[in-house]
Specification:
- By secondary structure, the protein is of the alpha/beta class.
- It has a single domain, classed as Spore Coat Polysaccharide Biosynthesis Protein SpsA, Chain A (Alpha-Beta Complex).
- Helices cover 34% and strands 26% of the residues.
- The chain has a 9-stranded mixed sheet, sandwiched between helices. A two-stranded antiparallel ribbon has the order 2-3. A two-stranded antiparallel sheet has the order 7-13.
- A hairpin with a 2-residue loop joins strand 2 and strand 3.
- It starts with a strand and ends with a helix.
- Uridine 5'-triphosphate binds next to helix 5.
Amino acid sequence: MIKKCLFPAAGYGTRFLPATKAMPKEMLPIVNKPLIQYGVEEAMSAGIFTMAIVTGRGKRSIEDHFDISYELEHQIKGTKKEDYLADVRDIIDKCTFSYTRQVEMNGLGHAILTGETLIGNEPFAVLLADDLCEGSGGVGVLEQMVKIYEKYRCSIVAIEEVERDEVDKYGVIEGKEIEDGIYMISSMVEKPSIEEAPTNLAVIGRYILTPDIFSILQNTKPGKNGEIQITDALLEQCKKGMVLGYKFKGKRYDCGSIDGFIEATNVFYKKQNQSSSSEPKK
Ligand code: UTP
């Protein structure tokens, strides 16, 4: 039912400068896989095979990553190194990718609006690749959200409890818990101060949005930091209908920050080592 996933990937990634001066933040690797590939794999396990990516200047390597590299593949053909490309080849075989450019970085809401041309008039997922998420019991976060969408058919944002002194980094929701871990949102505020924050339930980088969000975004004025905020558009959607907050099952790594990036690197490196040491030696 949700067929497309939008990846806003046009931001400058200033917290990773100088690494991100000429290289997209989304291509930074956790161990040996770029962040955006983890995101695409999460979308695939939710049954989504059409990827729509909002890029900007200096982001060409994202397009190249999800394309065949004939010279490289010819070079390593018949060697064990072919295995390194197996996952990304599988992605290329199963998914289609389309791209559009955000010309001015006017915020996440603006990036999502820029993606309208790739999405059209249907509900869609949004995945911010710098939030690296591991699901629970083999079920990814987006897959959990698609199931909730099938029941409620409205926009859904993934939420997580954060430390009170961290609320000013996030959109924060207020709402009534209508089912275990599912909140009917009554209010939302972007990057509130600790005093202003209604709760410590923060929105993280996974959304399912109904397409009426586009006309709302068209009329959304710049908000916090002079940017068009998806939080403001979602609040409008709440007033017109219903938006849910879903406390996802699993773990999120904030790979848009150095600390989260290093934490994810350490955890994934250990996991990779454990699984390779349990494999028979070739
Ligand atoms: P962030 O604010 O975390 O990313 O936006 P950033 O601006 O790239 O990073 P810093 O703060 O300068 O280090 C969240 C997501 O929204 C996208 C970003 O690419 C990121 O995936 N985004 C943000 C856009 O695509 N366009 C924008 O105008 C703003």
